[in-house]
Amino acid sequence: MRRLLTALLWVPLVSCGGGGGGGGAAPTPTVTGIAITGPEGPYLVGSSYTFSATVTLSNGQTQAASGTWGGDAPTVGTMANGLFAGVSPGEVTIWIDVTQGGRATKRLRVHPSYNGPWVGSYRITSCTDSGQFRSSARFCRDILTVGETLELGLQLVQNGLTVSSTVFLGGIELDPASSTVGDDGRLQIDARVTEDSTTLEVTLQLQQPQPTSLAGTITQNWRDTSLTGSARVTGDLVDVTKLTGAAAVPMRAPAPSLLDRFRAAKR
Fold first, then answer.
1. How many Å apart are CA 235 and CA 224, to the nearest integer?
2. So what's the pLDDT on residue 16?
3. How far does CA 241 lie from the centroid of its chain?
4. Is the pLDDT of residue 198 over 50?
5. Exposure of 214 by Cβ count < 10 A (0-12 exposed, 13-18 middle, 19+ buried)?
6. Taken in order 54, 41, 186, 245, is the CA torsion positive or negative?
């Protein structure tokens, strides 16, 4: 009788063991890391960039993240569903709040896009001359005078932060130049042209207050191997705007050009 009772008690204990396995369901993996991936820039005004996110789980696996995207400076750039669009120069932080839990952020700097043809003018604010530039050519009196407004054209091709430029000044086409957009969004163009004995060096300091307009200053340095001295001219850009629907700068060729006026004055 005692042996039978022991057997009856032992059988259900074996049956409850589930085949001798032990343990319940595996724990649900948790998020241990979130990474935002996408182009590393530079990020330009007027361009769009696609970002995605990946989560790393506590079991070591990774998977695509889903969630809500956003940014903290919509005037600089907008973010929606992983698509970022540059609006104006500045810095913005984008983020994603993932459905699995947690947030990832990424800091972006948006640079201006100088690409395209630009036309406008510049107004002379100062002119200084020396040597025969003053006594013979009377440069600041007869050639370029303070308050005068002259035509300006820029053909700019931007690749990343590198800008290739051709500058047009009152019928003069300067040699092509290359420059780089600074961290502050400004662009300095240094260009020159030599015709016969005359060399004209031009420096443009540009900034982009709006995507379709440029502001800044211009400096001209004139030298001539047949004259002593030199001339220096400074000016402010006036109403320089981007042409829409045009592939090149439609510059008019004034007669005479600045170089023509200088050559006539130095005789």
1. 21
2. 45
3. 17
4. yes
5. buried
6. negative
Which pair of structure tokens corresponds to residue 148?
């005068």
**pLDDT tens digits, one per residue of 43-65:** 999 999 999 999 999 888 999 99
Distances in Å between the Cα of 222 and the Cα atoms of 99, 139, 184, 192, 232 are 65, 10, 30, 10, 6
The whole-number pLDDT of residue 14 equals 41
What is the three-class DSSP state of 138? coil
Spatial separation of the C-alpha atoms in residues 202 and 196, rounded to whole Å:
17
Mean pLDDT of the chain: 88
What token pair was written down for 113? 């896009």
d(CA 232, CA 145): 11
**Position 17 confidence tier, pLDDT thresholds 50, 70, 90:** very low
How far is the C-alpha of 49 from the C-alpha of 239, rounded, in Å?
31
The mean pLDDT value for 72-90 works out to: 96
The 3-state secondary structure of 220-266 reads EEEEECCCCCCEEEEEEEEEEEECCCCCCCCCCCCCCCHHHHHHHHC
Domains of the chain plus CATH, in order, are 31-111 (2.60.40.1930), 116-265 (2.40.160)
Q: Are 194 and 182 in contact (CB under 8 A)?
A: no
Spatial distance between the Cα atoms of 135 and 54, rounded to a whole number of angstroms? 72
| 8 A C-beta contact, residue 127 and residue 232 | yes
Write b or e for each residue in 115-150: b if 16 or more Cβ atoms lie within 10 A of its Cβ, otherwise e. Answer: bbbbbbbbebeebebeebbbeebebbeebbeeeeeb
pTM: 0.81
